[in-house]
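Long-time lurker, first post. I've been practising inverse folding by hand and with some scripts of my own, and I keep getting stuck on stretches where the structure tokens seem ambiguous. Below is the full token string for one chain I'm working on. Before anyone asks, I'm not after the true native sequence, just a reasonable design that respects the backbone. If someone could post their per-position residues I'd love to compare against what I wrote down in my notebook.
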């Protein structure tokens, strides 16, 4: 807060905006009274001379896959209907300790599976730029809430692009940190070796500040690297060594206008003294299949816990024998896309097919990591489009899951290799929609990635 508005005024203005733009369907639950009470308390403390913490009065929305004690948690699924969190996610504890105000839980694709926010038991989210279009997914509500001014910053999760792609579709910044940077404790798991919590915002500095708060070691998540969180520092303007994948820009599925715009920008970067090189990346066509084999396998295991006994929804008929009870509960509780993925994942893990699919996909993942390590010996940053097109129209891809999956071509790479990625809202399309460019660095190099992003956003 800069002292010109109170926390209470800030919360009130967000609550009004949320009410006025209810049709966007960005929030599943708004915690209005509670946010106001907290804002008043923060105002009181500040006025009594208490020093402000790092997120004092910052109004933040949470994707509805992040646990907030004593609040509902739905994953946008019927199967979690009526469930209330018993504890806070680590990121929630850390934000609250820094005096953030959590204003609500945001809509998303069910269990974070999707690219358009059309797979939600709570209905579609609309893109505020053009309401006939999707906001992207799966963190569509988190993106739209920042896009439409319904909170200052929001958290999402990114397993294969779910932060970067909706940020791209909505014209804002979306950061997926390195795998192992931000604790997943309290995040509903989709594919545990891919999932990361990340940030939506409008400025690189804001995103950097929130990352600084939520990142770092956590005794509840053993995959977190023991390393101090990145702390933002202004850096002098630098010359970067930038690579892009030739096959990615030449891909027939890429919108030609996006291709031309990005190539033209790389030309300007060259003129400004950066090195920009097109490199061969023959593995491109394997990454979407590898991603969908591995993530559905992990999902089929992670989602086994939703059985109607321990959590949320259970089928109405209590006379059923146990297996039939599980079946009925899960058939009624899960949506179409989630069922498709549980089936796919169970199939690729089944005895007769394990080596053909799961083992192969693990091998592809290993090759990708090795290739990526080599690339970062010669380059500082990899850039790619974030998505092959701008936001499509609602309904356009719902009958064609394969084409929806293929639209993840540029984002799943960072999750397969664990590197951080950010989508920067640099461009506008002649169709009226925004789009960006995606930048990635080697693992745990977020500070550098953010400094690069800041510099590129200034030009
Ligand atoms: N669109 C991708 C998928 O459906 C990404 C999802 C995500 O990152 N959570 O799997």
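-- Answer (accepted) --
I ran through it position by position. Result:
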């Amino acid at each position: 807060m800069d002292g010109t508005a109170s926390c209470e005024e800030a919360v009130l203005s967000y609550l009004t905006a949320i009410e006025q733009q209810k049709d966007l369907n960005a929030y599943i639950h708004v915690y209005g009274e509670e946010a106001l009470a907290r804002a008043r308390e923060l105002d009181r403390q500040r006025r009594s001379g208490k020093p402000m913490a790092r997120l004092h009065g910052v109004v933040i929305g949470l994707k509805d896959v992040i646990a907030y004690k004593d609040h509902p948690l739905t994953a946008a699924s019927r199967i979690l209907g009526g469930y209330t969190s018993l504890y806070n996610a680590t990121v929630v504890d850390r934000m609250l300790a820094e005096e953030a105000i959590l204003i609500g839980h945001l809509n998303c694709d069910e269990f974070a599976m999707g690219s358009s926010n059309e797979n939600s038991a709570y209905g579609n989210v609309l893109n505020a730029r053009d309401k006939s279009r999707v906001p992207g997914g799966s963190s569509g509500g988190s993106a739209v809430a920042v896009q439409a001014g319904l909170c200052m910053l929001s958290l999402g999760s990114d397993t294969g692009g779910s932060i970067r792609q909706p940020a791209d579709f909505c014209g804002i910044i979306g950061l997926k940190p390195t795998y192992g940077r931000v604790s997943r404790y309290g995040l509903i798991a989709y594919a545990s070796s891919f999932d990361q919590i990340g940030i939506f915002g409008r400025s690189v500095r804001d995103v950097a500040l929130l990352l600084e708060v939520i990142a770092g070691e956590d005794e509840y998540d053993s995959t977190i690297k023991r390393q101090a969180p990145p702390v933002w520092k202004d850096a002098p303007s630098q010359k970067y060594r930038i690579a892009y994948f030739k096959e990615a820009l030449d891909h027939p599925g890429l919108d030609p206008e996006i291709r031309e715009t990005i190539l033209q920008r790389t030309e300007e970067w060259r003129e400004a003294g950066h090195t920009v090189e097109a490199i061969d990346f023959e593995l491109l066509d394997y990454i979407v299949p590898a991603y969908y084999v591995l993530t559905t396998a992990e999902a089929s295991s992670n989602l086994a816990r939703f059985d109607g006994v321990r959590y949320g929804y259970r089928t109405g008929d209590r006379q059923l024998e146990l297996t039939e009870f599980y079946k009925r509960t899960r058939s009624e509780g899960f949506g179409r896309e989630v069922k498709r993925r549980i089936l796919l994942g169970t199939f690729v893990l089944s005895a007769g097919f394990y080596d053909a699919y799961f083992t192969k996909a693990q091998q592809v993942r290993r090759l990708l990591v090795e290739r990526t390590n080599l690339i970062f010996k010669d380059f500082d940053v990899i850039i790619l489009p974030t998505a092959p097109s701008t936001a499509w129209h609602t309904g356009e891809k719902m009958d064609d899951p394969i084409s929806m999956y293929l639209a993840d071509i540029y984002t799943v790479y960072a999750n397969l290799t664990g590197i951080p990625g950010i989508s920067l809202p640099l461009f506008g399309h002649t169709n009226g929609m925004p789009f960006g460019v995606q930048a990635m660095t080697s693992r745990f190099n977020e500070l550098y990635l953010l400094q690069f992003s800041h510099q590129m956003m200034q030009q």
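A couple of notes from the structure itself: The mean pLDDT is 96. Residues 354-378 form the longest helix (25 residues). Happy to go over any region you disagree with.
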